[in-house]
Specification:
Elements lengths: L10 E2 L23 H25 L3 E8 L5 H8 L8 E5 L5 H4 L5 H4 L8 E5 L8 H4 L20 H20 L2 E9 L2 H13 L9 H7 L2 H15 L6 E5 L3 H17 L10 H15 L5
Parallel strand pairs: 2-4, 2-5, 3-4, 5-6
Antiparallel strand pairs: 1-6
Helix pairs in contact: 1-10, 2-10
Protein name: Polyphosphate AMP phosphotransferase
GO biological process, one term: polyphosphate metabolic process
InterPro entries: P-loop_NTPase, Polyphosphate_phosphotransfera, PPK2-rel_1, PPK2-related
Amino acid sequence: MLMKLDLAPFTYDGTGDFHLKDWDTGVPKAAKGLSEAEIKTEIAKDVEAFSDAQGKLYAQKRYSLLLIFQGLDAAGKDGMIRHVMSGVNPEGTNVVSFKQPTAEELAHDYLWRTRVAFPPAGNITIFNRSHYEEVLVDRVHPENLLAEHLPGIDAVGDVTPQFWARRYKDIRQLEHLASRNGIVVEKFFLHLSKDEQKQRFLDRIEQPDKNWKFSAADIRERRYWAEYQQAYEDAIAHTATKRASWHIIPADNKWFGRLVVSKLILQSMARLPLAYPEVTAEQKAELHAALEELTDGKGA
């Protein structure tokens, strides 16, 4: 039997004010008794249930699932995706990692590369970072916008609050379009504390098997911690809707965060009327004919 966990405290759907400081980065009191072994066992059960639901999703080809993961450096996005999605069928599943825009991508509108990566019917697509970088990194570093060929943006001073308001509106409309066309959008912000990020950076330096993860650029970006917190708070506050809620995942404890995400994904899938397609009378006749051919020796 799957563990019951109150998921409401981890979701913001745009109702009421949103302040990031009000959301925990650590394990809530109600769940502090869970051991890592118990959590791993529960995640394994969730993955099995998710795999079953994915089979129906893929066969039915009516809905699709878009999972968006955002978080600061060292928040655990890669590990989250690897563990929570470990049991899904690679066929019908795709992970997209959005890096620095290419020249071709910069020649299009800022949502173009996101739209073309949305999942087709029956599929699951995971975004490791996403279109939200355009209101996060670009918000902290507005000089990036000067390379996007934007009308009226010739200097950083041209970037006004109205500019960001328009981008939030664009994103809401894009996600509503996806929702109306059967794409279920689930957005996860891995909420990491500054102290935990520091410890993870130190681990990357001090532990040889983690040296490959270290990037001096991550340390430089850490200097903008307050700016990123504000950018995330504004982005979440302006783009959380009933159709595309944000899930604020406590990320200081990696395994608990993974448990919450696995439960939220299962909850999302459970809301869909998933079922294997019904076999028509014509298809049943074809199956019967094929069975006869195989069993009477003709199909040997």
